[in-house]
Amino acid sequence: MAEEKPDIAWRVIGGLVGLVTAWAARKVLGFAWTKTTGKEPPIDTESPEVSLGEAIGYAVVMGVGMSVAQIVVNRTAKKRYDAWKSLKQVTPGQ
Predict the structure, then answer these.
(1) How many CA atoms lie within 13 A of 74 on its CB side?
(2) CA 8, CA 16: separation in Å to the nearest integer?
């Protein structure tokens, strides 16, 4: 049996959701980093001015935070899209 390809609408919506999620997660995590550490997030983690611990900590926080945000938002968006799509396929009177 042939594998079903995602439709074009979901591909566009999924891409936009991914972009918005990445931007928002970066802003939220940066804000949380500033509130927690009292310092701005390191811009260049390879700079010798940033300690190794701070660079690794920031990488872990951003990596885990961004991944969790993407998973949660993408799953929620896909469920809502599938529900909307199934409602459109129901014909009136059934």
Answers:
(1) 14
(2) 12
* pLDDT, position 35: 95
Contact yes or no for 55/39 (Cβ under 8 A): no
Distances in Å between the Cα of 11 and the Cα atoms of 8, 14, 41, 66, 81 are 5, 5, 32, 20, 11
Hey, is 86 helix, strand or coil? helix
Q: Is the entire prediction scored with pTM above 0.85?
A: no
For residue 57, give both structure tokens. Answer: 């900590």
pLDDT, greater one: 93 or 22: 22
Question: For the CA atoms of the chain, what is the radius of gyration?
Answer: 19
